[in-house]
Amino acid sequence: MAITQTQLRSFLAVFRTGSVTAAADELIVTQPSVSAAVSALSRELGVDLTERNGRSIRPTPAGEAFVPYAADVLGLLEQGTRASREAAQVAAKELRIAAVTTAGEYIVPPLMQAFSASHPEIALSLDVGNRERVFERVRSHRSDVAVGGRPPSEGVLGECFLENPIAIITAPDDPLAGKHALPIEELGGRPWLLREEGSGTRTMTEEFLAAYELRPPLLTLGSNGAIKEAARAGLGVSLQSRLTARLELEVGLLATIDVSARLPQRHWYLLRPEHGPLRPPVEEFLSFVRSEGGKALERVRLR
Fold first, then answer.
1. pLDDT (tens digit per residue) in 87-129
2. pLDDT (tens digit, 9 = 90+) per residue, 1-10?
3. In 53-140, where does DSSP find H-type helix?
4. Angle 13-16-22 (CA atoms, 0-180°, nearest 5)?
5. What is the pTM of this model?
6. Which of 19, 98, 205, 269 fits as disulfide partner to 158, beta carbons 3.0 to 4.6 Å?
7. Which of 151, 107, 149, 120 is nearest to 294 (CA)?
8. What is the mean pLDDT of the chain?
């Protein structure tokens, strides 16, 4: 079987963009070359990997099944190339970090600052997105390590390293904020503020409401900052990591509602690809977070 990197890259670009034209633009090649590469890959595998869907192209069931393997192969080859160049000292050491939005805003920056102080020779980069984006970047080896919630069952390994306390936040003048062990049903008629689709915080909130059979009005907002401002303005309540609202709670710009229902139990995880060896910069970062990194985060939380 003579599968090439060009065929794999072309197929994955078509999968991501949904069209040969967009894939060609992404790869900076001609449309016929993309079509030829995907067709050649299909012939090598003996199955059709894509099919027409109106004016766009979508993967067939065979194509869907092949995607994670193609991404894994390309990712491992890229990692191997990077590792060999770093070992030969012809390329600078690099660590690509990904993080879900909350972790990217409140956890990873102090980790990067502390890690860089002791490892200035390693160049760091950070990609922040929702849960789905982060898991896909790790699974495909486009990020070396990530910080997020509990990982899915395949493709990503997770190591719990920090608690993530959850609270229901509300406006500081909310009359329910001063009560103790409030029945959760009393919040069933209140608007609840949610993050966007694909957010782990949104999924957590939806599962929490479903568990208590609550069907409140929902308002979707695209960031933690927007949710905090909406809650402060009295537009609704929200289930949030305490870390996101720490400062606002300390100075009285937000308040919490104490309910008798058990709030979700969450932790932060170090995430890495399931397959392939880890390059030395990745090993060094993981070792740092397990030791000094945790202490650095605790100092930040206690400021």
1. 888 888 999 999 998 899 889 999 999 999 999 999 999 999 9
2. 689 999 999 9
3. 61-87, 101-106, 108-118, 131-139
4. 60
5. 0.79
6. 269
7. 107
8. 90
DSSP annotation string for 135-183: HHHHHTTSSSEEEESS--SSSEEEEEEEE--EEEEE-TT-GGGG-SSB-
Q: Token pair 């689709």 is at which residue?
A: 197
Q: Which of 197, 181, 192 is nearest to 218 (CA)?
A: 192
Distance CA 255, CA 176 (A): 10
234 φ, ψ to 5°?
Answer: 85, 20
| Residue 131: both structure tokens together | 């849960």
Cα angle 289, 278, 67 (rounded to 5 degrees) comes to 115
- The two tokens of residue 43 are 């012939």
Task: Express each pLDDT in 46-90 by its tens digit.
Answer: 999 999 887 788 899 999 999 989 998 998 999 899 889 988 888
Q: Which domains does the chain have, with CATH numbers?
A: 5-67 (1.10.10.10), 92-160+268-301 (3.40.190.10), 166-256 (3.40.190.10)
